[in-house]
Structures are given as structure tokens and as C-alpha cells.
Recover the amino acids of this structure.
């Protein structure tokens, strides 16, 4: 049996690739566990400074593995484990000190949309389509879709997508802030890897701290978030990467960050 997720690293980028194209890369418990294990492995590798999440085949991911869900949906314990496993995987991506870039081609629906929402940046192919299909089949999101989507695009836009279950094209996804960039399908892989490689040249502690501040600040009043940022920068400025960055600025050269 082939592995449901492929992983490797290159140029400071840890790649997590969904590898079930024959099943539209649907998300089983095993897939979530493999994603989570890969993320933890990359975090432990000082040579990795960014994660790229992508998928094989025509489509990114069309959602949960419904065959697995159907077999456990009347067993509350097994269903809770299935849902909790997915939520832990997505929370791990959000909380990771490494920036997570997601590359999306084709369909990105339901659980696939929820997975994409846990990334920090999304680059989409011009043929990508996004949607939350749960309402169409009498279902509700289970991996944070009703929460992350609202926080990202706002209540009105999120309600439109959740209640109608409609699919949107890449250009509309860009216009509402669901994705960061739209590129031709033929160049998606290259563009996403180039973006991730750029992040991999940055200071790992600096990116981790900015990611933490931005995400935790969402749950704070502005004044509290600013205080959190103030306290963080006082500690951060003592680091070796800051010394290197300032020396590079004064010397008009590219920084050579080594801290991890």
C-alpha cells in the first residue's frame, strides 16, 4: 500500500504532498496523522525554515474520506477521535513556528478547504475552485471551517459560502482574501516553491515570532496585542539573528542567518 503523504526537504523547505490523487486526496485519519508527523519532523530539523503543503494530481483535496466517515458516524467515540485527529493536525500547522505555504490546484472543497485555511499563505492555480460543500449534503464542518473561514474573509462572505455551498473561482477567492496569489496552473509548483524558498532565507526565530504574534493577536483586543508585541520584541532583539541582520544591513550584504 502506497503512502498517503509524501515528504522531503530541499533548499530549506519541507514539502508535505498529499498522495491520493485517485481518491481526490481525501482526508482520512491516516492522512491527517501523516501530515502531523511530517510537520513535527520538519520542526525538529534545523535546516528546514518553511513548509510547503501541496497535492498530487488534478485536484488539491475534495474533503474528508467519506467512506471512513460513513463507517464510524454512528459510533460517537470513533467519530470524536476522527474529528479530533483532524483538528489537532490543523492546529499544529497554525501553531507551527515554521511558516506554512499551501499550493492549490483544481478543487479545494470542504475538508480540503479547512486544511488550506490552516496554512499561513495560499497560492492558487488559475483553474482552482474553492467551496464548502457541507450544507449541500446536510453536513456541517468538523475541522474548523465555520471558525477559520469567518475569521479570514468576514462573517457575511463566510455565511454566503457556508450556507449556499457554492464553489468560487480563483479570481473571486483572491478578491475576498481567501488566497494570496493566483498563478497559471503550469507554473503553480514552481511559484509556490520559489515563495517557500524565499521564506527559508529569513530568520527562523523572527518568522516564528511574527507568526505567533499575528495569530495570538486575533484573540486579543488591540491594546493587549500591542503589549504582547512590545514584550516579545524586547526579548527578540537580544538574539543572534538580530545581530547578524543589523550587521548585514550596515555592511550592505545579504544576512546569513544560522539561529534555529
Amino acid at each position: 500500500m502506497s503512502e498517503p503523504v509524501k515528504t522531503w526537504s530541499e533548499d530549506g523547505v519541507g514539502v508535505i504532498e498529499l498522495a491520493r490523487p485517485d481518491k481526490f486526496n481525501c482526508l482520512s485519519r491516516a492522512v491527517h496523522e501523516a501530515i502531523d508527523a511530517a510537520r513535527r519532523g520538519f520542526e525538529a530539523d534545523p535546516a528546514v525554515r518553511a513548509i510547503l503543503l501541496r497535492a498530487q494530481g488534478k485536484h488539491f483535496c475534495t474533503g474528508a474520506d467519506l467512506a471512513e466517515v460513513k463507517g464510524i458516524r454512528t459510533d460517537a467515540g470513533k467519530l470524536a477521535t476522527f474529528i479530533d485527529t483532524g483538528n489537532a493536525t490543523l492546529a499544529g500547522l497554525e501553531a507551527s513556528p515554521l511558516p506554512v505555504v499551501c499550493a492549490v490546484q483544481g478543487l479545494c472543497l470542504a475538508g480540503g478547504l479547512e486544511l488550506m485555511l490552516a496554512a499561513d499563505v495560499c497560492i492558487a492555480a488559475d483553474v482552482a475552485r474553492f467551496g464548502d460543500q457541507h450544507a449541500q449534503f446536510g453536513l456541517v464542518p468538523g475541522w474548523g471551517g465555520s471558525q477559520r473561514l469567518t475569521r479570514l474573509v468576514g462573517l457575511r462572505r463566510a455565511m454566503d459560502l457556508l450556507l449556499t455551498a457554492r464553489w468560487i473561482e480563483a479570481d473571486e477567492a483572491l478578491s475576498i482574501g481567501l488566497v494570496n496569489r493566483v498563478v497559471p496552473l503550469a507554473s503553480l509548483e514552481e511559484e509556490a516553491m520559489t515563495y517557500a524558498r524565499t521564506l527559508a532565507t529569513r530568520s527562523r526565530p523572527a518568522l516564528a515570532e511574527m507568526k505567533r504574534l499575528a495569530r495570538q493577536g486575533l484573540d486579543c483586543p488591540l491594546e493587549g496585542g500591542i503589549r504582547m508585541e512590545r514584550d516579545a520584541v524586547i526579548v527578540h532583539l537580544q538574539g543572534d539573528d538580530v545581530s547578524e541582520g543589523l550587521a548585514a544591513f550596515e555592511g550592505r550584504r545579504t544576512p546569513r542567518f544560522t539561529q534555529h
